[in-house]
Inverse folding.
């Protein structure tokens, strides 16, 4: 082969390489630019989420504390009602016995008054 032919082939290979490498470099640059913009947007989103969600999380904690306090009050109220019902059961039983004795004596008095001889 002649030295001019190999030099021509090398020049042709160099031109083809530049034709391939320039668009590939441009596309790689675009991809890296888009990746940088995506990371920047993600950082902005995370900052926004942190500052927007922090007050919301405080509100959620406060609501949870209030719900817990209300449930404690409700539980103590139910317990006091149970104790009240348990303490009124003997009173109601004795009241029922007194009413029964009163009715029996009233009824017995009416029967005696009708059975009396005149």
């Amino acid at each position: 082969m002649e030295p001019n032919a190999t030099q021509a082939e090398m020049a042709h290979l160099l031109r083809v390489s530049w034709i391939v490498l320039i668009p590939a470099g441009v596309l790689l640059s675009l991809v890296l630019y888009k990746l940088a913009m995506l990371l920047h947007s993600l950082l902005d989103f995370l900052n926004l989420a942190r500052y927007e969600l922090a007050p919301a999380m405080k509100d959620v904690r406060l609501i949870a504390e209030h719900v817990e306090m209300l449930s404690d009050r409700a539980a103590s109220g139910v317990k006091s009602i149970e104790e009240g019902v348990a303490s009124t059961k003997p009173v109601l039983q004795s009241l029922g016995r007194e009413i029964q004795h009163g009715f029996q004596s009233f009824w017995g008095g009416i029967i005696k008054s009708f059975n009396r001889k005149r």
User: Anything to note?
Assistant: Residues 91 and 97 are 10 Å apart (CA to CA). The chain has one helix and no strands. Helices lie at 3-115. The first helix runs from residue 3 to 115.
